[in-house]
C-alpha cells in the first residue's frame, strides 16, 4: 500500500468516527477514497451500526453490497443526513473538482440531497486554485460535437483560447457514465473564477452536469500518509 493509500484509508476511518451514527441516511461516494470508506463500514455495520446508504455509482453499489451496508433508492429516501465522497481537487473555500471516476452526475445529485456534504481526500488533493486536474463535463451523446463547440465558446469567454478537450475513453471505446452519457475532459490548468465558470457551463444545452462542485462541501477530512488527519469546515 502506498502512503497516499494510507492517507485515503485514514480519511475514511476519521469520517466514520466523526460523522456516522445510528439511523443516519448516508450518501456513499465513488472513487478509491470512497471505496476505502465504504469497505471500512463493513465492521461497524456488522457490529450493529444502523445506517442506510444511497450510492453514487454502480461500482459503489457493488462495494457496499460486499460490505453488507443496507442500501436504499434516493427516490424512497429523498433527503440524506450526510453525503461522504472523495474529490479530485479541493480549494480553501471548499470548492471542488470531481468526476475523475466519471460519477459526477449521481455524486452531485446525492451531495445536494444531503443536509451536509463531507469531502474525503488525501492531502495531495488540497490546492490553492482548481484546474490542474482536467475538468470533467458530462454531455448527452446526441450532438456531442456541437455541445463541445459551445463548450469551447464558453471557455473562450473565460480566457481559454484553445484548450485541450478530450472525449473520455475506456478500453478503446467511448466511456459511458452510469447515466449513459459521455464525458469531455477540459484541460484548463487553472480556474480563476470557479463559481462563474460553473454557472456558465450550466447554461449549455447538452451539458448534463460538470465537475465543479461549488458551495456544496460543508467540511473536508484530509488524510495524511503518516496516519494523521485533520478536518476543515467551510
Ligand atoms: C468520481 C469522483 C471521485 O470522488 C474523485 O475522482 C476522487 O477519486 P479518488 O478518491 O479515487 O481520488 O469524483 O467521479
Task: Give a written overview of the molecule.
The chain has 8 helices and 15 strands. With 234 residues, it is an alpha/beta fold. It folds into 2 domains: 3-127 and 214-226, 3-Layer(aba) Sandwich (Rossmann fold); 135-205, ACT domain (Alpha-Beta Plaits), CATH 3.30.70. The strands form 4 sheets. A 6-stranded mixed sheet has the order 2-1-3-6-14-15, sandwiched between helices. The protein has a 4-stranded antiparallel sheet with strand order 8-11-7-12. The chain is globular and about 55 Å long. Bound molecules: ribulose-5-phosphate.
The Cα radius of gyration reads 17 Å
Report helical residue fraction.
Answer: 25-40%
Mass-distribution shape: globular
Q: What is the number of beta strands?
A: 15
Number of helices: 8
Pattern of helices and strands = HEHHEHHEEEHEEHEEEEHEEEE
Strand order of the largest sheet: 2-1-3-6-14-15
Mean pLDDT: 97
Termini gap: 31 Å
- What is the CATH top level name of the largest domain? Alpha Beta
Q: How would you characterize the largest beta sheet?
A: 6 strands, mixed
What is the CATH T-level topology of the largest domain?
Rossmann fold
Write out the distinct hetero groups bound to the structure: ribulose-5-phosphate
Low-pLDDT runs:
none
How many structural domains in the coordinates? Answer: 2
Give the class from helix and strand content and strand pairing.
alpha/beta
CATH architecture level-2 label of the largest domain: 3-Layer(aba) Sandwich
The fraction of residues in strands falls at: 25-35%
Amino acid at each position: 500500500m502506498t502512503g497516499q493509500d494510507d492517507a485515503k484509508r485514514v480519511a475514511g476511518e476519521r469520517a466514520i468516527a466523526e460523522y456516522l451514527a445510528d439511523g443516519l441516511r448516508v450518501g456513499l461516494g465513488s472513487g478509491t477514497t470512497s471505496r476505502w470508506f465504504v469497505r471500512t463500514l463493513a465492521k461497524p455495520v456488522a457490529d450493529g451500526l444502523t445506517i442506510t446508504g444511497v450510492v453514487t455509482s454502480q461500482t459503489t453499489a457493488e462495494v457496499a453490497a460486499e460490505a453488507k451496508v443496507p442500501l436504499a433508492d434516493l427516490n424512497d429516501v429523498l433527503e440524506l443526513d450526510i453525503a461522504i465522497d472523495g474529490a479530485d481537487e479541493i480549494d480553501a473555500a471548499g470548492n471542488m473538482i470531481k468526476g475523475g471516476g466519471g460519477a459526477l452526475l449521481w455524486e452531485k445529485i446525492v451531495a445536494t440531497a444531503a443536509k451536509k456534504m463531507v469531502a474525503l481526500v488525501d492531502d495531495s488533493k488540497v490546492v490553492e486554485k482548481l484546474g490542474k486536474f482536467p475538468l470533467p463535463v458530462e454531455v448527452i451523446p446526441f450532438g456531442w460535437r456541437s455541445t463541445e463547440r459551445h463548450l469551447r465558446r464558453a471557455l473562450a469567454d473565460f480566457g481559454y483560447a484553445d484548450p485541450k478537450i478530450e472525449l473520455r475513453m475506456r478500453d478503446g471505446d467511448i466511456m459511458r457514465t452510469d447515466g449513459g452519457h459521455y464525458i469531455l475532459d477540459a484541460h484548463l490548468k487553472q480556474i480563476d473564477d470557479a463559481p462563474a465558470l460553473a454557472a456558465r457551463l450550466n447554461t449549455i444545452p447538452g451539458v448534463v452536469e460538470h465537475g465543479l462542485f461549488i458551495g456544496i462541501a460543508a467540511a473536508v477530512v484530509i488524510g495524511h500518509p503518516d496516519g494523521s488527519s485533520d478536518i476543515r469546515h467551510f
